[in-house]
Amino acid sequence: MADAASSRSATAERLTRLILSAAKYRALDESVVRRAADNAAGRFSDERQALKYAKRKLHQSYGSFLVGSPAQAVTAMAAAVRSGQAGLRQAALRAMRAHASSAERADWLEPFYARVAAWCGAPASVADLGCGLNPLAIPWMTLAPGAAYLATEIDTALVAALAGLGDVMGVRLAAAAMDLLAPQPVIGAELVFMLKLVTTLDQQEAGASGRLLRAVDARHVVLSLPRGSLSGRRGYRNEPGAIVGDVVAGSRYRVAAEAAFGDEAVYYLAEASSAASSATRQTTS
């Protein structure tokens, strides 16, 4: 048993170094890569198969969303705003095109965040989990003056770029590399975003998004799902509402309202006691 464990550990270490040496993945948080490598090493005795499997999992959670370099797009956006070459919203919209998920939402930012404000008011603290380039949408959000905004991602280069945006966005913005598949301490904020995160997490580990929600301590949670795959070639086996039902089961939250914008299904989660007292279920299309 000790020899098997030692062999798996050595294989996982080699896979980790191989993956991080690739240009596509070198900015990934090492703990994320190491977890994927260890999982692959435990599944396959053939190292080539293990490497292929680990890369496929990382592509699902990270590589498939890249359109250019998100970190460079954020840096260029901030420089353009600070120099006066572009307005904040104009520059932010242009930069969002570097991340596929954020790029899709760029077409309905105004109504999307108007609906979030109707649900959540003006929160003083936000945790944006697996954020992509969603923090660039802060100019469209309704936040309390001086609000604290935490952005988490697995791309360390993007985390560094986002961390420097506080003066541009006018909020107390912090960014952190966070592996959302790892056990989490309590994630506390007035509003927590889990945008297009559920299916990405659950592709990696069954039930991962539900476990993450159980670590959240927030007055408001806004969660969304795409209505189909990123490529547009397939839909999901279950309807978005059924998927969300599985996520909230066993948590302190219930679906209080829902909306749809383009190809994104959006759900407002409130604590069960609050949701029960709400007489109106909002639906928009």
Give a quick precis of the structure.
The protein has 285 residues and is an alpha/beta fold.
Question: Care to describe what's here?
Answer:
The structure is a single chain. The chain is of the alpha/beta class and 285 residues long. It has two domains: 60 residues; 207 residues, Vaccinia Virus protein VP39 (Rossmann fold), CATH 3.40.50. It has 13 helices and seven strands. It has a seven-stranded mixed β-sheet, with helices on both faces. Helix 4 packs antiparallel against helix 5.
Strand order within the widest sheet?
Answer: 3-2-1-4-5-7-6
User: What does the largest sheet look like?
Assistant: 7 strands, mixed
Helix and strand content put the structural class at alpha/beta
CATH homologous superfamily annotation of the largest domain: Vaccinia Virus protein VP39
CATH topology value of the largest domain: Rossmann fold
Number of helices: 13
Shape: globular
Percentage of residues in helical conformation: 40-55%
Average pLDDT metric: 85
- Secondary-structure element order, N to C: HHHHHHHEEHHEEHHEHEEH
Low-confidence stretches: 229-235, 276-285
